[in-house]
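Q: I'm writing up a methods section and want to include an example of the input and output format. Could you take the sequence below and give the corresponding predicted structure tokens, formatted cleanly so I can copy it straight into the document?
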Amino acid sequence: MARTPDHPVAPLFVDRWSPRSFTGEPVPDAVLASAFEAARWAPSASNVQPWRFLIARHGDAHWDAFVSLLAPRNALWASRASALIVVLSELKLERRGAIVDNVSHSFDAGAAWTNFAHQALLLGWHTHGIGGFDRDAARALLAVPDDFAIETIVALGRQGALDTLHADFHAGESPSTRRPIAETVFAGRLGQPAFESERDAA
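A: Here is the clean output for your methods example:
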């Protein structure tokens, strides 16, 4: 399915989607370094940069442990990725000499992961964020301290042919559409159209 934006945007934003078919080929250090460099420059409240990334590459000493964290259905496809990346965010920050809650930790980590995904795509690699995994097991197995939240696991790889993907996922292996912005952007309060064209239509 071809994606067509309703308003002008750079192709990068509609070209990024989340396939499940991956080749499993090795990902070069240069690709990972470039994607993590893009993540490094994400917006961050007070320049705290609360994000941390734990990475396993296909077949390395950490790979089986990372795959074991996935829900069984997700492991069917994500085990063929080139890398799995656990995204963490730090819950506390130092402000004027005091340790306080970082209320934007997830927001900032999300911005970093988005930068990562877009830079990876520019280099010819796809990503897929995964919510279905065992967070308690991840904390124990990966020795994640309690002052970090475990946000997501990201699968990264070259997109593979459909016949390399488990048949259960074939029907959904295409870019999804999005709601029109009239359903997500409002003037002042929910339900109030933000743009004149929408007010006229109402």
